[in-house]
Amino acid sequence: MKALMITRFGGPEVLEIQTAPDAHPGPDQILVQVEAGGLNFADLMTARGGYTGTPKPPLIAGREFAGVDANGRRVMGYTQWAAFAEQAAVHRSLVWPVPANWTAEQGAAFPVNFFTAYFAYWKAGLIDKPAGTRVLIHAVAGGVGTAAVEIGKILGIEMYGTSSSDDKLARVRELGLQHGINYKQGDYVEAIKNLTRGEGVDAVFEMLGGEHVGKSVRCLREFGRVVVYGAATGEAPTLDTRMLYAKGASVHGLWLSYLSQNRPLMESAWKQLSDWMGAGRLNPVIGKVFSLSEARAAYTLMEQGKNYGKIVLKIS
Q1: Are 12 and 63 spatial neighbours (Cβ–Cβ below 8 Å)?
Q2: Helices within the chain (DSSP H only)
Q3: Contact 67, 36 (CB under 8 A)
Q4: Which of 1, 133, 162, 197 is deepest in the core (most CB within 10 A)?
Q5: Residues 65-124 pLDDT 10s
Q6: Using alpha carbons only, what angle is made at residue 229 by residues 127 and 197, rounded to the nearest 5 degrees?
Q7: Strand pairing class (134-137; 201-206)
C-alpha cells in the first residue's frame, strides 16, 4: 500500500511517500480503507521525534483518519500512528460513524479536535457550568480552537480567543467567538484584564507552552483552571506554583493519547458529541485540503502557524 513515511526525525523534509506492507488488523482491531487524514500539531512533534512514545523511524505518519471499513461503513477514527496510508488497522473502540451528510475530509477533521476540545471543557468543569462562565482559548483559529468555539457556543459560555491575525479572528467570530485578541498587537493578559473589568476568566485552554502557562494563570479569576494540552512553542512550560495560591487556581493536564485508553470516558464523550452532531450543531472547520503528495507543504503550513481551522490530507 501507499503510505506517508517518516524516514528519520526532522522537519517536513523527512516525509516521503513509499510503498509499505498492507495493514493487517490484530485482535480488537478493524481494517479501514483510508480516504482522508487530519493533520495535528502532534504529527509535527512525531516527525521531529518529540512526541512521547514515538517509535524509531521509519514509521507511517498520522493519527486521525476517515474511510470505509470492511463492511462498507463510512467511519472516522483515532490511532497513535500509521493513519496516513491507504489502509489502517485501528482499535474498534476508537472508530465512529461519519455522518451521512459529511465528506471524508470532514470526518478526518473531527476526532482529535473535538474530543480534545470536549475534554478541555470537562477538565475545566464547564460541561455543567454556572451562568456567566468565561473561557480563554489560545490559538482559537486552529483545529482545536474552532472546535472549542463550536462547543462553547452550545454550552452558552462567553469566549475569548487569541490569534495572530485579525482576519482569522473575524472568521472565528462567525462561529460564535465573542472576544478576539490579536496577541501581536498587545499583551493578552492585559486584554483579558480590560475586557473582563479586572475579573478574569474561569478557564484557559493552553497549548503554547513556555511562559504562556504562567501568563494564562494570570488571566484566571478565583478558583479558575488552566487546561494544558500542548506546547506549540516547543518551550518547556514555566510556572511558579505560588501564583496559584492567591486565587485558589489550578493547572490540569490533558493528553488525548492517555484519555483515549479509558473506554467509558470516551463513550460518554462520544454520546454527547454525537448528539450535537446529529442536531447539526458541530461542523469541522477545514482550512485547506492537500493531496498526499503535498504532505510536506501541509506540514510546513502548520509549522508556520498560518493555517485556519483544520488541515486535511487527501489519501485516496
Answers
A1: no
A2: 41-48, 104-108, 111-123, 143-155, 166-173, 188-195, 212-218, 256-259, 263-278, 295-303
A3: yes
A4: 162
A5: 999 999 999 999 999 999 999 999 999 999 999 999 999 999 999 999 999 999 999 999
A6: 60
A7: parallel
Three-state DSSP class for residue 284: coil
**One-letter amino acid identity for 18?**
Q
Rg (CA), the chain: 19
Residue type, 212: H
Nearest to 200 by CA among 210, 211, 192, 212: 192
Instruction: In whole angstroms, give the CA distance from residue 182 to residue 188.
Output: 8
**Dist CA 31 CA 91 (whole Å):** 9
pLDDT tens digit string along 200-235?
999 999 998 899 999 999 999 999 999 999 888 888
State how far the Cα of 212 lies from the Cα of 222, in Å rounded to an integer. 19
Contact 314, 290 (CB under 8 A): yes
The model carries a pTM of 0.96
* 7 DSSP β-pair partners: none
CA proximity to 39, closest of 266, 303, 316? 303
Which candidate, 286, 296, 261, 293, places its Cα nearest to that of 108? 286
